[in-house]
Amino acid sequence: MQSFLLRSLLASVWSRNCAMASSFRRAIRIGSFVASASLLASCMVGPDYQKPELQIPTAFKEGVEWQRAQANPQAAISSTWWQMYGDSTLNGLVDQALKANQSIAVAEATYRAALATVEVNRAGLFPTVKAGVTGSRSGGATAALGTASGNAVEATVSASWELDLWGQVRRQIEQAKAQAEASDAQLAGERISITASVVTDYFELRQADYDLQLLAEQQDIDAKILVMVQAGLSVGASSTDDVLNAQANLELVIAVLQSTATSREQYEHALAVLTGQPPEGFKVAADPTFRFNIPAVPTGLPSELLLRRYDVVSAERTAAAANANIGATEAAFYPSLTLSAEGGFANTSLSHLFTAPHRFWTLGPDLAETIFDGRLRTANVNVARATYDEQVATYRNTVLTAFQNVEDSLSSINHLRMQADAYSKVLDSNQRLFASQQAQFNVGAASQQSVLNQRLTLIQAEENLRDTEAALAESNVTLVKNLGGGWQQGDGEAAAAPPSGTTSAARAAPSPVSQAARPGVATLPGT
């Protein structure tokens, strides 16, 4: 009896040891498989991105004198740069445009879609788990067929996971992130572009206000001269040609006056649309006394354009996305491994469904490889590489264009400043001549017609100077835009805000300060 018990105990211990050894070997195999899969999953095929090399100048060619005039050449452009012009009406228009402009709303929606695309691609790194319950009742077959009516109830849970062994999903995430960053830069660019359009159109409208006032005065003077010439014709002091010339001058001023009035109305309509309003109820009160302030704009170094120009940043990020797509297409040359598992319970009644005798499960891997595709994968890789080369060339050309834009703006400002200085001297001379003519008229040494003609010459000098000031102000806006408009890569101000919400550029901006309180603001001679 003791011998029997001893043999039974030894058999039980041996059986348990064998079961433990079997479980241990199974755990080792599973652990080895998981470790191998994890090691493979750390691999990513395709080239790692390197920012394309560029030839960057050390300074702007046309900005030497400009930069010497700055109190702080290393200063950055403010993100609310339009406030440096010191105009509360302009500030209100820009803030309204940043909140309600529909082009900005489109760009914001595009950016949010790009962020969502990143999440779509990131979901590919995780398994998909599904659950379901089904129930059915069958019947109606004849007994001769050997079937009978019955119930079937089934509850299942399934999971599948395609391992990212070669980094295809991770490259797609990398591509989507780069595209989202490019979209972020494009959103910033849309905001800067709309802001610059508002400021430029506002300046054009104010210049039209000034021109309309001068043209109205010029029309009045030409009408008086025509009356004088007609009176002179009746006494033989003037000729018919003099009358015709006087009439032509008057009609020309009337024509220009109408053209300027049309331009003024169209600029007002443009401002309405830019601020998201119908032109019908939009109105900007006339201000013929408006004076242009031309603030100093820090240009910085050419290398900073690579971070401050939204189009440069967007082009570089697009090239990075194209590079990641190469790896995503190359991954198609390697086999795919999908792990699938399904389990559940099946029975003829719901009451005894979740019991051990009625459970079932399946588990297994699925390894697949494309044997022949008519060189489809090779062609896709070639397309991806050619697209990358195209985007790199686009990036380099965008950088060159950015340098050109800044050089053009600096050149324009340099020459417009000298032009404004010359017109200021012309205006000063004509003011003295007009004063001299008035003095001679007061003592009877000059005719009233001579005084009026000299006033017309003075008006032309005033128009020339004011037109140059307006062009200089608009060139100043263009320079700010070409330098990036106060935006810089990584600012993070384009966070997917709803179109109807307040944009980052419009949130609680400081109040505009007076010209006297703004260092570096220069007023043109004669303003």
Salient structural properties:
single chain; 527 residues; alpha+beta; Outer membrane efflux proteins (OEP); four-stranded antiparallel sheet; two-stranded antiparallel sheet; 10 helices; 6 strands; 58% helix; disordered N terminus; disordered C terminus
Structure in a nutshell:
It is built from ten helices and six strands. With 527 residues, the chain is α+β, with helices and mostly antiparallel strands.
Walkthrough of the structure:
The chain has 527 residues and is of the alpha+beta class. The chain has a single domain (52-124, 166-332, 376-522), classed as Outer membrane efflux proteins (OEP) (Up-down Bundle). Helices cover 58% and strands 9% of the residues. A four-stranded antiparallel beta sheet has the order 1-2-4-5, with no helix packed on it. A two-stranded antiparallel sheet has the order 3-6. α5 runs antiparallel to α6, α5 (168-234) runs antiparallel to α10 and α8 packs antiparallel against α9 (376-442). The longest helix is centred in the middle third of the chain and has 67 residues, at 168-234.
How would you summarize the topology of this molecule?
Elements: H1 2-41, H2 64-68, H3 88-100, H4 102-122, E1 128-138, E2 150-162, H5 168-234, H6 240-274, E3 294-295, H7 305-308, H8 310-330, E4 336-347, E5 359-368, H9 376-442, H10 448-482, E6 521-522
Antiparallel strand pairs: 1-2, 2-4, 3-6, 4-5
Helix pairs in contact: 3-5, 4-5, 5-6, 5-8, 5-10, 8-9, 9-10
**In angstroms, what separates the terminal alpha carbons?**
123 Å
Low-confidence stretches: 1-35, 64-75, 492-527
Query: Remind me, CATH topology?
Result: Outer membrane efflux proteins (OEP)
Question: Strands across the major sheet, in which order?
Answer: 1-2-4-5
Number of strands: 6
Proportion of beta-strand residues: 5-15%
* Rg calculated over all Cα atoms: 39 Å
Structural class: alpha+beta
The best one-word shape is elongated
| Assigned CATH class | Mainly Alpha
Characterize the main sheet.
4 strands, antiparallel
